[in-house]
Amino acid sequence: MDSMNGTDHESETPTLKIKAFFESAPPLKDAAEIETKLKEFVDRNSSSSENGKANRVVCVTSGGTTVPLEKRCVRYIDNFSSGHRGSASTEYFLKAGYSVIFLYRRGTCQPFCRSLPDDPLLECFTSTDDSSIQVDPSHAEVVKRAITETRSAVNGGFLLKLPFTTIFEYLQILRMIAVSLRSLGPSAMFYLAAAVSDFYVPWESMTIHKIQSGSGPLDMRLAQVPKMLYVLRNEWAPVAFCISFKLETDTDILLGKADMALKKYKMHMVVANELSTRKEEVIVVTEQEKITVRRDTTQAGADVENPLIKLVVDMHSAYINHSDA
Ligand code: 9Z3
C-alpha cells in the first residue's frame, strides 16, 4: 500500500497533511449527536460558575486507537492502552472540581469502574429464585460506587463520555471537542493519555474486502498519521493548556523524546512514561523542569495518577493566573 495516494506528503505543512487526512477519512456516523452533546456540555460549563468565570474543563483521552486494514474491517492494527491512566485521571479531575470530556476507546477501562472484576455482570450479580437480580455482597461496595459516582457526574453535567474505535473517529471527535472548547480560553485543558497510532492506511487506498492470504506474504506500506498535536496547539485550541504523553519501552530515549515533543509541538507539559513502570512513576517534563512523580508505596491501592493530577491542577492554575494577568 502506498503512502497517501502517491502525493508527496513529506513536503507539505502539518496543516495541509491534516487537511488531507480529514478529507479522506470516513465521516463520523453520529457527528450531529456528538455536536449537540458537546454544545450542551460547553454551554452548561460556560454559564454555571459562580464567579463569572468559565468552569475548568478537561478533555481526557484514553485507550488506544485502531488502524483498520480493510474497509469492511476484519483485521486492524492496535495501540496498547488499557485505559487505566485516563479513567483514574478522570476521577481525580472530577474530584478537583473539573468537568471532564472523556474521549475513550470502546471497551477500555471506565472512570469509577477500575475496581470491578473483569466480567462484572457474571461476577458481581446473582439471580435469585424469584428471578430478581442481587449484587453479591463481596462486590456490593464497588458496584455501588461505580453506579452512584458515574450517574452523579454524568447527570450533574460534569462528565461527558464519548467513545471511539479507529484513528479516524478519534481525530475527528478530538477536533470537534477542541473547537467547541475554544470559548473557554485558558480554562480548557487537553490531557492526551490515549495511545495514538503513528501509522495508518489512508481510507481511499484501503481495500474494501478482507485481504486474502492465498497470494502469499503481505507487503504493506503505511502512511504517517499527521501530528495532530501541532494543529491542536496552533489552530484548534491555541489558548488551552495542553498535556501530551510520551510512551517508550527504551528508557535511554524517553526523556529526549519527551523534550522533543515539548518543543516541537509547544506542549505545556509532556508526561514521560516507560511501559513496564508506568503505574509506579512518570516524569513530568516542562520547559523549566523535570519532576518525577511516584505512587505512594506506603498506601495500599495508591496510584500515580493521584499526585500527578494534583501537580497538573497546580500548573493549570498558574497558567490561568498568568493568562489573566
Ligand atoms: C501514554 O503514554 C499512557 O500513559 C499509557 C497508559 C497508554 C502508557 P494504560 O492506558 O497506559 O494505563 O494501560 N499514552 C500516550 C501514548 C502515545 O501514543 N503517545 C504518543 C507518542 O508517544 C504521543 S500522542 O508518540
UniProtKB/TrEMBL annotation:
Gene Ontology MF terms in the entry: phosphopantothenate--cysteine ligase activity
Highest taxon of source: Eukaryota
Q: Which Pfam families match?
A: DFP (PF04127)
Q: Which InterPro entries match?
A: CoaB-like_sf, DNA/pantothenate-metab_flavo_C
Q: Where is the DNA/pantothenate metabolism flavoprotein C-terminal domain?
A: 176-294
Keywords recorded for this protein, A-Z: Coenzyme A biosynthesis
Q: In which pathway does it act?
A: Cofactor biosynthesis; coenzyme A biosynthesis; CoA from (R)-pantothenate: step 2/5
Q: Name any Gene Ontology BP term.
A: coenzyme A biosynthetic process
rRNA processing is among the record's keywords: no
What the record says about family reads:
Belongs to the PPC synthetase family.
What's the protein name? DNA/pantothenate metabolism flavoprotein C-terminal domain-containing protein
Please give the organism: Anisodus acutangulus
